[in-house]
C-alpha cells in the first residue's frame, strides 16, 4: 500500500493515508487497533477498488485528536476527508469501531455511502449480551476475544511484542494513544446513540461477522438489521472478531460480491 | 513540621483466601463481602481514632475518596469530615479530597467544602485529586481521554465560585450554568488551602507549582521508592523558579510504633501483611485505563531507572528495609522518619498509623506513642520556612461549641451561646 500524509480541513488535521488499487473508491475505516501493515485484505480489495484508508486522528501519524471528542466529531472528520479528496460518495467499509463510525457517517449524510459494509461493528449494547471490557482485559486474554483460534500463527504474530525494550516502549505508547482515542467512542459502554440515528441509513448495507466473534458476538447483527432498513448479513465460519485477517479470501469475496452486485 | 493523621478506612475482615479467590479489592470486589453491621462498627471505630488523633495533638486529621473499594470505605469523604466537625476542635480537616471531575455540576464540591469550612470554623483543607483510574474511569465511567480536561474545567469553576464577588455565568465544555452564586461561601478567605493529592502524574507538579498549591504524594510505596516522585516534583519547582518550601510537599508514610523494634514486628506484621496482600490486591487491568495517564507521564515512567516496586509477598524485614513502613521503637521511628523527611523535603507528613486489619486499641497505642515520643522531636524541622498551606481557623473565642446533651445543661443551651449572636451584632 502507498502511504502519504494529507492535510485535511484547512490544516486542522494531518492524516496518514493508506491507498492502493484503482476503480470505484472504497473508504475503509479501521478498528480500535488501527491499520495493519501490511494488510492483505485491503490489498485484495485493491484489485477491484481504489482503496482509501485513513488513520483516524490519534492513530499512527495522524494529528488533530484533540479536535475529536465524540462520534459526531469523528463522522464529520470523515466527511471533511471525503470533501478534501473530492469524493462525493464511496463504498464505505468499517471494521469494529470503524463500523460504528461508518454507520454514523452514513446516517449523518445519506448520500455519502453508495453501499455500506459493517464488519463486526460496535455501536449497540444488549444487556443480555454485554461486550467484554477489552480496555481492562488481561493482555494474555485478548487473543481469546479477538481470534477464532487464539493459538493460530496469525493470532501469535499479531500479539507478538518486540524483544527490544525501546521498541516495546514505543509500541506500548502507540497502543495507549490509539486506545485513548477509541475510548472517546467506546468507553465505558460502546453505545453513543446510533440507535437514534441509524434509521436514516439508506445505503444498501451488508453486515459481515465472524461466527465465533467473542468480542462483539454475532447476535448484535440483529440489532443492526432492526435499525437499518436495507440490511443483509453474512456470517463467516471459523472466524472471530479479526474476520478480515482470519478468513481474508472469504471476507473479500463476500464484500466484492456485495459491492459489485 | 506538620503531621496529619490519615485514615483510609479499610474493611478489616476480608477473608484469609481473598487474594487467591477474588479478582480485585477494587472495582469488582463482591458486595457480599461487605457486612453493613460490621461497617457500622468500623465507621464509628475509625471516627474515634481520628478524634483521638485530634486530642493527641496532630495538626490535621485526614480522609480521602474511593469507590467500590475494600480498603477505602469513603465514597464521600465529606460525610466523614462533617461527622468529625462536632467532636474535634484543634486539628484541621484534611479532605484529600474530592475528585472534582466526578461531581455534576462541580459547584457541588464548592458548596460542600464551603459548608465544611463554615461548620468547622475554618479548619478545612480542600483536596482536589484527579482521582485514580479505578475510581474515575472504571467505577464512575468517565472517558479517560477527557478526564483531565474535565478536571481542569471543574477546578476553574470551583475557584471562581469561591472568589467571585458577583453572580456569574459559566460556559464550559462540560458544565454550563446561567447563575453561579455560592451560598454559603467558605469561611477562610479567599478560600481554604488547596492541596492536590497525586499519584505521580508529571503534569500535576507544574499545575501545583503554577497555582501555589500544596502537592501531596499519596501512595503506599514508602519514602524510599517515593523519592522518584518527590525528586521529580522538586526538579519541577526548581525549573520554574519556585521556592523549595518543604511545606508545599505532603507525603503519605505508613508507620507503626511500639515499645521495641521486636514488639513492633510482633504486633504489626500481620496487619502489614493484610494491607499489602489483601487490601492492595488490585487487578492490574483497572490500574491505568488508556488515556488516564498522559503520554508524557507514561514515557517518564518507562524511562525511569527505578521502575515500579513489586510489593507482593514481602516479609516484615523487606517492608522495613524497603521503607514501605517506618516501624519500631520510638527512637527507631524518630531516626528513620527524620532522615526520610529531610531526604524528601517534606513539611506535611500524612501519617498512616492505621493500616489493614489493625484494630482500634492497637491503632491507639501506636498513635499515642507517635504523638508523645516521636512527633515532639521532629517539630522543629523546617522552622526556617513559613507554612503557607495550612488553614486559618477562627480564634477559639469565636467558635461555636456544641451544646451539652444532658438535661442539666439543656437550659443553658437556650441562653449563653445562642444569645451571643444578637441582632445588633449581626447588624454590625
Write structural notes for this entry.
The complex is a heterodimer of chains A (261) and B (428). Chain A is globular, with a radius of gyration of 17 Å. Chain A has one domain: Rossmann fold. The longest helix of chain A is centred in the C-terminal third of the chain and has 22 residues. Chain A has 261 residues and is of the alpha/beta class. Chain A has an eight-stranded mixed sheet with strand order 1-2-4-3-5-6-7-8, with helices on both faces. The model of chain A has no long low-confidence stretch (mean pLDDT 97). In chain A, helix 1 links the parallel strand 3 and strand 4. In chain B, 43% of the residues lie in helices and 12% in strands. Chain B is globular, with a radius of gyration of 22 Å. The longest helix of chain B is centred in the N-terminal third of the chain and has 21 residues. With 428 residues, chain B is of the alpha/beta class. Chain B has a single domain, classed as Luciferase-like domain (TIM Barrel, Alpha-Beta Barrel). The chains are: A alpha/beta (261), B alpha/beta (428). Chains A and B meet through helix 6 of A and helix 6 and helix 10 of B.
Amino acid at each position: 500500500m502507498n502511504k502519504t500524509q494529507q492535510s485535511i480541513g484547512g490544516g486542522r488535521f494531518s492524516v496518514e493515508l493508506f491507498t492502493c488499487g484503482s476503480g470505484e473508491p472504497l473508504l475503509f475505516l479501521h478498528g480500535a487497533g488501527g491499520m495493519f501493515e501490511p494488510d492483505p485484505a485491503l490489498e485484495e480489495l485493491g484489485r477491484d477498488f481504489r482503496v482509501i484508508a485513513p488513520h483516524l486522528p490519534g492513530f499512527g501519524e495522524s494529528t488533530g485528536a484533540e479536535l475529536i471528542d465524540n462520534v459526531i466529531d469523528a463522522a464529520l472528520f470523515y466527511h471533511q476527508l471525503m470533501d478534501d479528496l473530492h469524493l462525493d460518495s464511496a463504498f464505505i467499509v468499517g471494521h469494529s469501531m470503524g463500523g460504528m463510525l461508518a454507520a454514523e457517517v452514513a446516517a449523518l449524510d445519506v448520500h455519502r455511502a453508495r453501499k455500506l459494509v459493517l464488519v463486526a461493528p460496535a455501536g449497540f449494547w444488549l444487556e443480555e449480551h454485554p461486550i467484554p471490557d477489552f480496555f481492562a482485559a488481561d493482555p494474555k486474554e485478548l487473543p481469546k476475544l479477538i481470534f477464532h483460534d487464539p493459538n493460530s500463527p496469525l493470532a501469535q504474530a499479531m500479539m507478538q511484542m518486540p524483544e527490544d525494550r525501546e521498541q516495546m516502549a514505543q509500541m506500548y505508547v502507540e497502543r495507549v494513544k490509539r486506545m485513548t482515542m477509541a475510548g472517546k467512542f467506546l468507553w465505558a459502554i460502546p453505545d453513543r446513540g446510533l440507535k437514534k440515528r441509524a434509521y436514516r441509513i439508506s445505503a444498501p448495507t451488508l453486515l459481515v461477522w465472524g461466527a465465533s466473534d467473542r468480542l462483539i458476538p454475532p447476535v448484535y447483527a440483529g440489532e443492526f438489521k432492526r435499525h437499518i432498513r436495507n440490511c443483509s448479513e453474512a456470517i463467516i465460519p471459523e472466524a472471530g472478531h479479526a474476520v478480515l485477517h482470519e478468513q481474508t479470501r472469504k471476507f473479500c469475496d463476500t464484500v466484492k460480491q456485495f459491492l459489485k452486485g | 513540621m506538620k503531621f496529619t493523621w490519615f485514615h483510609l478506612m479499610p474493611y478489616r475482615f476480608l477473608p484469609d483466601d481473598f487474594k487467591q479467590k477474588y479478582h480485585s479489592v477494587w472495582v469488582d470486589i463482591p458486595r457480599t463481602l461487605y457486612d453493613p453491621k460490621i461497617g457500622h462498627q468500623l465507621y464509628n471505630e475509625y471516627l474515634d481514632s481520628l478524634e483521638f488523633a485530634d486530642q493527641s495533638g496532630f495538626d490535621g486529621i485526614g480522609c480521602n475518596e474511593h469507590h467500590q473499594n475494600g480498603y477505602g470505605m469513603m465514597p464521600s469523604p465529606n460525610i466523614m469530615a462533617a461527622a468529625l466537625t462536632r467532636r474535634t476542635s484543634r486539628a484541621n480537616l484534611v479532605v484529600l479530597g474530592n475528585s472534582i471531575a466526578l461531581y455534576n455540576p462541580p459547584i457541588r464540591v464548592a458548596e460542600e467544602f464551603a459548608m465544611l469550612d463554615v461548620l468547622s470554623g475554618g479548619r478545612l483543607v480542600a483536596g482536589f485529586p484527579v482521582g485514580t483510574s479505578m475510581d474515575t474511569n472504571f467505577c464512575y465511567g468517565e472517558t479517560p481521554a477527557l478526564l483531565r480536561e474535565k478536571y481542569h474545567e471543574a477546578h476553574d469553576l470551583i475557584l471562581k465560585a469561591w472568589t467571585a464577588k458577583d453572580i456569574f455565568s459559566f460556559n464550559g465544555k462540560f458544565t454550563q450554568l446561567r447563575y453561579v452564586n455560592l451560598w454559603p461561601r467558605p469561611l477562610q478567605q479567599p478560600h481554604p488551602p488547596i492541596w492536590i493529592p497525586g499519584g505521580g502524574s508529571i503534569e500535576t507538579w507544574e499545575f501545583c507549582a503554577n497555582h501555589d498549591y500544596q502537592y501531596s504524594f499519596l501512595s503506599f510505596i514508602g519514602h524510599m521508592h517515593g523519592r522518584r516522585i518527590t525528586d521529580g516534583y522538586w526538579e519541577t519547582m526548581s525549573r520554574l523558579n519556585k521556592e523549595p518550601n518543604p511545606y508545599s510537599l505532603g507525603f503519605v508514610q505508613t508507620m507503626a510504633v511500639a515499645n521495641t523494634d521486636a514488639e513492633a514486628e510482633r504486633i504489626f506484621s500481620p496487619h502489614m501483611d493484610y494491607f499489602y496482600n489483601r487490601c492492595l490486591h488490585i487487578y492490574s487491568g483497572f490500574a491505568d485505563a488508556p488515556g488516564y495517564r498522559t503520554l508524557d507521564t507514561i514515557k517518564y515512567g518507562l524511562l525511569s531507572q527505578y521502575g515500579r516496586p513489586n510489593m507482593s509477598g514481602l516479609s516484615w524485614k523487606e517492608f522495613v528495609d524497603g521503607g514501605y513502613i517506618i516501624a519500631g521503637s520510638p527512637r527507631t521511628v524518630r531516626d528513620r522518619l527524620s532522615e526520610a523527611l529531610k531526604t524528601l523535603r517534606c513539611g506535611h507528613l500524612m501519617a498512616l498509623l492505621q493500616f489493614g486489619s489493625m484494630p482500634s486499641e492497637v491503632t491507639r497505642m501506636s498513635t499515642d506513642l507517635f504523638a508523645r515520643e516521636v512527633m515532639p522531636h521532629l517539630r522543629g524541622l523546617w522552622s526556617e520556612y513559613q507554612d503557607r498551606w495550612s488553614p486559618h481557623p477562627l480564634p477559639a473565642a469565636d467558635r461555636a461549641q456544641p451544646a451539652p446533651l444532658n438535661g442539666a445543661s439543656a437550659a443553658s443551651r437556650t441562653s449563653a451561646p445562642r444569645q451571643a449572636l444578637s441582632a445588633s451584632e449581626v447588624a454590625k
